[in-house]
């Protein structure tokens, strides 16, 4: 993900202190032309990274939401904040939950449609949301995933055997 090489100029100065970029978009590509990986949170926060611009030296907190909205969430870091990450492993609270990334992606107003109503990323993300915050309701999960509450609730139920067989035989997501 964060392994692209340096370029002579960067887009850091043009970005707000907090930004959300569409994965695969022009700005995303321009950003990662100069920003490389300076550290991974790892563990339960597999989506969280520290980036550093090879052109200007700016450090960025990077949250990679690749399941639903395909976006990169950014927060400009001070030198001290970057040192706390690299020196003591103390990461800022921003983007510590996948829910936070989903909220930022959802706030962009992007529409997401899954052809497979039981897509693995939908099921996995719904289950992860419920595991990290057991009191979260189906309506809130649905809103975060761009689904109805009824569709979100169905993600927690086992798929009917005939439906599963049909999907396997036809290799469809309907």
Explained architecture:
There is one protein chain. With 174 residues, the protein is an alpha+beta fold. Helix content is 38%, strand content 21%. It folds into two domains: 12-95, no CATH class; 120-170. It has helices spanning 26-34, 79-88, 98-107, 120-132, 138-145, 149-154, 161-170; strands at 18-22, 35-42, 45-53, 59-65, 71-77. A five-stranded antiparallel sheet has the order 1-5-4-3-2. It is elongated. The model is unreliable at 1-7 (pLDDT under 50).
The poorly predicted ranges are 1-7
C-alpha Rg (nearest Å): 18 Å
Major sheet details: 5 strands, antiparallel
Number of strands: 5
Oligomer: single chain
SSE string, helices as H and strands as E: EHEEEEHHHHHH
Distance between the termini: 31 Å
How many H/I helices?
Answer: 7
Average pLDDT, all residues: 91
In spatial order, strands of the major sheet run: 1-5-4-3-2
Strand content: 15-25%
- 3D shape: elongated
Provide the domain count.
2
What helical percentage do the residues reach?
A: 25-40%
Question: Structural class per helix/strand content?
Answer: alpha+beta
């Amino acid at each position: 993900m964060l392994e692209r090489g340096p370029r002579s100029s960067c887009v850091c100065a043009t970005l707000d202190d907090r930004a959300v970029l569409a994965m695969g978009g022009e700005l995303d590509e321009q950003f990662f032309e100069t920003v490389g990986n300076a550290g991974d949170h790892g563990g339960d926060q597999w989506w969280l990274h520290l980036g550093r611009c090879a052109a200007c030296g700016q450090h960025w907190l990077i949250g990679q939401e690749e399941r639903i909205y395909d976006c990169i969430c950014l927060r400009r870091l001070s030198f001290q904040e970057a040192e706390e990450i690299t020196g003591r492993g103390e990461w800022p609270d921003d983007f510590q939950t996948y829910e936070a990334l989903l909220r930022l992606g959802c706030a962009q107003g992007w529409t997401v449609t899954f052809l497979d109503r039981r897509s693995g990323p939908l099921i996995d993300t719904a289950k992860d949301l419920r595991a990290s915050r057991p009191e979260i309701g189906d309506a809130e999960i649905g809103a975060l995933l761009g689904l109805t509450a009824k569709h979100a609730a169905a993600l927690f139920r086992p798929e009917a055997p005939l439906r599963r067989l049909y999907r396997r035989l036809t290799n469809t997501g309907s």
